[in-house]
Design brief:
Elements (H helix, E strand, L loop, with lengths): L5 E5 L2 H8 L14 H10 L4 E8 L2 E10 L10 E8 L8 H15 L4 E6 L7 H6 L3 E5 L5 E6 L1
Parallel strand pairs: 4-5
Antiparallel strand pairs: 1-2, 2-3, 3-4, 5-7, 6-7
Length: 152
């Protein structure tokens, strides 16, 4: 699969089936919740939830869900990446970075100066990816997950 033109599209009835079919590399399953969980929440909380698929030409190759809630009592939930998933066949091609930068642009337009993300540690976990694209670890959750922040 060659790199075509990447673009975002709002998660919809047209794209949700393809988003739910995104595959993971072995070992990644424990770190990613199915897209269907985020899809349901997008309709329950439409004012704070930002759910998009990443298309490479017309193929769904990724999914990102953000949360924007300036009034959240927890700072790490005010402008954050809630979920990100790139198909196993498309990983390593800049799709995740593209999605994160698009979410950061949305956050900036909404008046935020930081995007946060929470991840579980582990050999196949997303920590290296987030650090590689500029997130800095700022602490841990009460459950031992890492909190990272990206200044935008």
């Amino acid at each position: 699969m060659s790199m075509g033109t990447l673009r975002l599209e709002e998660l919809s009835a047209k794209t949700i089936v393809a988003a739910n079919r995104l595959t993971l590399r072995p070992g990644q399953e424990q770190f990613v919740t199915p897209v269907s969980y985020s899809a349901a929440d997008a309709y329950v909380n439409p004012t704070t939830t930002w759910a998009r698929v990443v298309l490479d030409d017309d193929d769904v190759v990724g999914f990102i869900r953000g949360n924007f809630d300036a009034d959240s009592p927890k700072p790490e939930f005010r402008s954050c990446i809630w979920r990100i998933n790139v198909d196993a066949t498309a990983q390593g091609r800049g799709i995740g970075k593209f999605a994160v930068h698009a979410l950061a642009d949305e956050a900036r337009q909404r008046g935020f100066h930081t995007v946060t993300v929470i991840w579980e540690t582990g050999d196949d976990g997303p920590g290296d990816f987030f650090r590689h694209i500029g997130f800095v670890e700022t602490g841990d959750t009460e459950y031992g997950e890492k909190i990272g922040a990206l200044t935008i």
